[in-house]
Amino acid sequence: MPELRPLPAPKGDFIGLEGKVHLATGGEPPLLVKYREAFERFAADKAEGFTGYWAHWSVDDEVRAIVARMARAEPGDVALVGNASDGIAKVVSGIAWQAGDNVVAPELDYASGRYALASLKQRGVELRLVPARRWVLDEEQLLAACGARTRLVYVSQVNALTGQHVDLEKLSVGLEESPAALLVDASHAFGAVPLRADLSDFLVSACYKFALGVHDGILVWNRRRQPDFAPAAAGWASAMAGATPADYVMKPDARRFEYGNAGHLGAYLLQESLVYLESFGIEAVAAHVRDLAERLIIGLQELELEVMTSAGPDRHAGNVCFRCPDPETVMRRAAKEAILVWADNGRVRVSAHLFTTQEDVETFLERLPRYLGWEVGQKECAWPNPG
Question: What is the DSSP string of 114-182?
Fold first, then answer.
């Protein structure tokens, strides 16, 4: 096994990162310099006609194998989909809903899941949203909201709003005797911390955040827990010919979720980024980002800010979030000094990834009071917690 590369990753490995403190990966990360080579490989294959077209599919298969290795799954469990929302919709479409069924999700979870589940209300399906207390979701409360008619529980491994890392093992064990399937959105975990697709029935993720890819998605179908599952629709790539032109047979693996061509260019790029991440070791990346996130939490607490992200390395990944009256102004002031953070939903999100240095974090914490306007006496930045 090759020796793992040391962290932090060189900033020169990324396009446009030199001279910046990039703490915005939870929104958009920089792209790898090697993406230029990956695009050239894609373009060269595309110029080869039929042979090149099937080379695209070979790269797709290589990506499935890497994702499976990172997620404790099998290559046949992995589908390449348009985005995380696309994956969620395909899972929701494959459940035989009946009036009186219900679905359970955190109230503070991302809209891609909440909206997909809310759309079921027109079928008589109840959406049960579990509130957080002081920004923290209690996994026991999520389980307590389930009942005999609960068909699906949706949760993000890392919450996009608060940065909380959910205990998936507790949820998986708690649902063992339940008819409910567990659907996990790993968009803010994939590439930052280990994935555990073996703990859920379905796992989806965007590829453009900590996985360092572009705007594609993955779907991991746990065939051991849901062996007969199929999405409601079909396409030429997801099925095989049946006895007549009007018949078809769904493919036996996760390709049944891919109705047409996968995003082949995105696969070439994702292959490059996943190989890059694995060269450092995902466990090492997780330890790196969690250490830096812990320093951010402590530093923000020392500034007496309202920190939404819980301390403790098992309770967060790379995102740390805090509230203040004008987060967009904080973001703009920081950007003028080449420090990139992410501001929306009434809070600032600061993200550490494998290229983030201790100096990056200290620089941001040192300058943050000025970005908040405290030099003119404006130190009020605490908003009431919900619940």
Answer: HHHHHGGGGGTPEEEEEPPBTTB--HHHHHHT--TTEEEEEEESB-TTT-BBP-HHHHHHHTTTSS-EE
